[in-house]
Amino acid sequence: MPACKDHVDRKLMDSEHAFKALLTSLPKPGGGEYGKFYRLPALNDPRIDRLPYSIRILLESAIRNCDNFQVTKDDIEKIIDWENTSPKQVEIPFKPARVLLHDYTGVPAVVDLASMRDAMKNLDNDPNKINPLVPVDFVVDHSVQVNVTRSENAVQANMELEFQRNKERFAFIKWGSSVFQNMLVVPPGSGILHQVNLEYLGRVVFNNEGILVPDSVVGTDSHTTMIDGLGVAGWGVGGIEAEAAMLGQPMSMVLPGVVGFRLSGKLRDGVTATDLVLTLTQMLRKHGVVGKFVEFYGEGAAELSLADRATIANMAPEYGATMGFFPVDHVTLQYLKLTGRSDETVSMIEAYLRENKMFVDYNQPQHERAYTSYLQLNLADVEPCISGPKRPHDRVPLKEMKADWQACLDNKLGFKGFAVPKKEQNKVAKFTFQGQPAELKHGSVVIAAITSCTNTSNPSVMLGAALVAKKACELGLEVKPWVKTSLAPGSGVVTKYLLKSGLQKYLNQQGFNIVGYGCTTCIGNSGELDESVAAAISENDIVAAAVLSGNRNFEGRVHPLTRANYLASPPLVVAYALAGTVDIDFEKEPIGTGKDGKSMFFRDIWPSNEEIAEVAQSSLLPDMFKSAYVAIRKGNPMWNQLDVPPSTLYSWDPNSTYIHEPPYFKNMTVKPPGPREVKDAYCLLSFGDSITTDHISPAGSIHKDSPAAKYLQQHGLDRRDFNTYGSRRGNDEVMARGAFANIRLVNKLLNGEVGPKTIHIPTGDKLNVYDVAMRYKAASQDTIILAGADYGSGSSRDWAAKGPMLLGVKAVIAKSFERIHRSNLVGMGVIPLCFKPGDDADTLGLTGRDRYTINLPSKIHDMRPGQDVAVTTDTGKSFTCTARFDTKVELEYFNHGGILPFVIRNLIKE
């Protein structure tokens, strides 16, 4: 038995806290102490030295929170024995140090908290028990849209429109920050949450009332992983899980495997961090890292800037990992100083992490750590590339782009195909744009956006884009006026260094004026295309392209009219905007004609790494970060003028189309309802592979003929006031109607027709998904969904689980689930079932027109995590599925009808 086990047993008899003896003072060099901390080396257990750094953070959290109730001695032993336990899919509790929200997911979270207060009152209990118990950082960044572009006044104009559209939501957020404890709100116009988290909110080490703890965070956005580049353990969770974490509940998670990724060498000249992350995404997708941590190490990792690391960490959801983690080293400490953290804070962080064996010193010999599996990459092998046209992991080397585009036109309809007939491929759509003759072809770029936390936090690629614009201006090249260009930085720091470098004016000349500080094109807030451009695309069935420096390019996400969407580095965004098409070989074909009439090529406008580094050295200063974030704390005039009532219970307005009291807790009883049988359920929808949360719960524009549009019109709204689904996530009536409202939805029940409709099986009627679901609900008939692999991939969205639940969906039967989405389904009481390997709807002959009975035990204590469940149909078929309740805690959620009723009943017990 390991030494610590005896130690644990003795301490549990003597003290409530098993590890009090590990509490050690961390002295300051000049006298006094920084605080006390739980010192891992004091366990005297050699297994800790072999643990990946990311697992050590889980271990420290478990030790510090060990009360032998929520966190037990057995949980600590599981983590210490990670090499042996992680392959066994054991569960552990985890309590993050803080929670990160943005307004799309934060508003419904605050709506739920407000509604939970009402539920507590209705159950004759104290509503004030519903309160965040850990710090909550709420960044309002998802509501700005690219309405005004190519204007010096674009930022102000777009912010005014943002406040006009969202005044009620913003006032609700401000109310929440005033009545709920521990909630810091970063107001609109400040930046993108992940960049703000990296530059300002990330603590690396917390001083929590004299106890030093590693910073860790869960966020209601899948790209929360960006903070992993700073050595902070962070990942995305559903809004439902985040609410439970806020309320002090431990997150139950499967102890993950950790893929060790060794990086060597250096990036070649002209190769960007974006090229690197797209390469890693493809490699890791191929390796298979879903549900795992990826930990980067090696001399190549040591050479990467913090911004490059953050770019890699950011796209963990795209490569499928829970985290893409870089342990803290000297590069991290330099970045903390650059971004304005005080010298004393940085000294405390270094001292704590060194003392607790969480710091990597590449100047010292490295201890061998254990990993689940290993990968390696020589950075010198990375080449310029982009990804698309429909998925982030479909990487295309730049030199192969023209051939790949041609293949996409030829290929049958799919992730790499548009099925454009040969005779149609050279079609030219001529039109008039603002009085000028214009034309579009297949592959013409109509949106070019420097956007997204992935890249705007990285000065090297942002300055690279500005240098491309400068060289283009000097050579007489310019972007066609009908290309919708935009620049949406992740923080005000970007503007400061672009202005100091003197390069912003060149971006402006090419149409890349700053349009706002927030998440824009990457989440579908790209605004409308000019009517003449939109008509040319629609009337001529043009496969138009968007090129963006984002992390997501799923079909229908960026803009309804751009069927081809490519992810690229910011400098490549400018290059493709100048070329005006993705149908180009940059090595052989000119990008345009210069002022002297000569052909200009890609090589003529591409800056060297040395040029970029030189500008960065002279333009990026710590004072820029300090002043930008002082401004955040002051707020902005529009935000400061919002007036909110001080009441602890929210006064719901029944006529509001933004904030509506949800129905989750109506008729709730103190006793849990227990497992529910699913009997003779109809199939609401039947899907193939890779159905994303964008398909299930769109974030973008509300189509004029959709059920949500009809609801808003019935409430007196004009189409111009619809706003987006994302902005209306505080209203369950809108969001239930928006479930499966994606215009690119492919439902097998429709036999090849694409769109947000389905078949009402009893009558054969083809209607909107919402209308069919309401027919089934009115007849008290259960429904299920059939799906293929990777169901629920993409952004973490609680509404992708809440929406189907409100439609009456009782279960989803899929080949596999994306991690966060499966968790969200469980959190809303929807049963996630997995076909057995080799089975799917097609091999089992399930047409979707059968009726399905799912045989579950009637008592929760008769169920166990991951058990087999028999499913039968009215047509005589029978098959076995795995019930994806992965932990005992998830079975408890199911017993209670979801995680939020579980939390309420637990608080009542207390």
Secondary-structure-derived class: alpha/beta
Helix content: 25-40%
Strand content: 15-25%
Shape: globular
Distance between the termini: 36 Å
Largest sheet: 7 strands, mixed, barrel
State the total count of DSSP E strands.
34
What is the averaged pLDDT score?
92
Number of helices: 34
Which stretches are poorly predicted, pLDDT < 50 over at least 5 residues? 1-15
SSE arrangement:
Layout: H1 3-14, E1 23-27, E2 33-38, H2 47-50, H3 53-64, H4 73-80, H5 82-85, E3 91-94, E4 98-102, H6 103-122, E5 136-139, H7 154-179, E6 183-186, H8 193-201, E7 205-208, E8 211-214, E9 216-219, E10 233-236, H9 239-246, E11 251-254, E12 258-264, H10 273-287, E13 293-297, H11 299-303, H12 306-314, H13 316-319, E14 323-325, H14 330-338, H15 343-355, E15 373-378, E16 385-387, E17 395-397, H16 401-410, E18 428-433, E19 436-441, E20 445-450, H17 453-456, H18 459-475, E21 484-487, H19 492-500, H20 504-509, H21 531-540, E22 545-548, E23 564-567, H22 570-579, E24 592-593, E25 599-600, H23 602-605, H24 609-619, H25 622-634, H26 637-640, E26 678-686, H27 693-696, H28 707-714, H29 732-738, E27 757-760, E28 765-768, H30 769-778, E29 783-786, H31 799-806, E30 809-814, H32 819-827, E31 831-835, E32 851-855, E33 868-873, E34 878-883, H33 888-896, H34 899-909
Parallel strand pairs: 4-5, 4-9, 5-6, 9-10, 12-13, 12-15, 13-14, 20-21, 20-22, 22-23, 26-29, 29-30, 30-31
Antiparallel strand pairs: 1-2, 3-11, 7-8, 16-17, 18-19, 24-25, 26-32, 27-28, 31-34, 32-33, 33-34
Helix pairs in contact: 3-4, 6-7, 6-9, 10-12, 18-22, 18-24, 19-25, 28-29, 29-31, 31-32, 33-34
